[in-house]
Amino acid sequence: MCQSGVVLECVINISEGRDIDALRQLAAVCANDLLDVHFDPEHNRSVFTLMGTTAPRRLTKLAVQLLQLDTHQGVHPRLGVVDVVPFIALDESTMHDAILARDEFAHWASSELSVPCFVYGAERTLPDIRHQAWSNLQPQYGPSAPHSTAGAICVGARDSLVAYNVWLNPTTTAETASLIARSVRGDGIRTLALRVGNHWQISMNLIDPERIGPDIATDRVIHFAKQNNVEIERCELVGLISQHALNKISQQRWTELDLSAERTIEFRRKHGYTFTA
To answer: CA 192 to CA 67: how far, in whole Å?
Structure first.
């Protein structure tokens, strides 16, 4: 296990966003290490923000017991019921600490739960795994075929990022949404155009959020949306943002961008969080 004094965040993406009772059970098993839960029924996906390396294992073990990938339906791509498990170094901890936690988790999940694990970080990106898993890329840990009900887990070591959505008006076409996503993509922004109910959504990972934060990303979406006569309906922060990244953004825009001091990693570490859905 990771050495004492190491401070790690873990942002686990679970392939369930509709069964509130299951989400309550999953949140409860995380106990005081839980910082946030963001869930979406259309995506049928939840993002659990945790501290440390123990709660991620408790959450993963229960999710594998409760959920089944073969009956899962949702708009977001996924490889497993526990789809993504990235470790992020905080405070004075290092990327080496995050990599050690990643590899220990992947070894545990593959040996104890028999769930194959793909790892990402310096070796490859999460999009690489999404595109190549089970064809050009085999798991680095565990069985060479997906678990019958749990699929596979993508386990990573990465820097802090921000998951962020910009919703387009319901008259937007699939072609236009895809064009906007492609136009915004690059220079610190990964994008997908996802159909969510009656709307299209530009789903983004901001991989350098202190340089390219939600304000800059939203302005890029607005720019290309205007070029295609599309209006923006709203913005959505998925999970938490660091205080450093938030400080880069004018406070006058926080409401517009779905941001607040209470939704920072630092605030939740200090004040705690209770899942109340």
So the answer is: 25
Q: Is the pTM of this model over 0.70?
A: yes
- 3-state helix, strand, coil split of the chain in percent (to 5) is 35, 25, 35
DSSP 241: B
Nearest in space to 192 (alpha carbons), one of 174, 213, 172, 219: 174
What lies within 8 Å, CB to CB, of 73 at 6+ separation is: 44
Question: What would the pLDDT profile of 30-62 be if each residue is shown by its tens digit?
Answer: 999 999 999 988 889 999 999 999 999 999 999
- CA gap 226, 179 in Å, rounded: 12
Per residue in 117-170, pLDDT (tens digit) is: 999 999 999 999 999 999 999 999 999 999 999 999 999 999 999 999 999 999
Q: Can you identify the CATH homologous superfamily of domain 162-271?
A: Formiminotransferase, C-terminal subdomain (3.30.70.670)
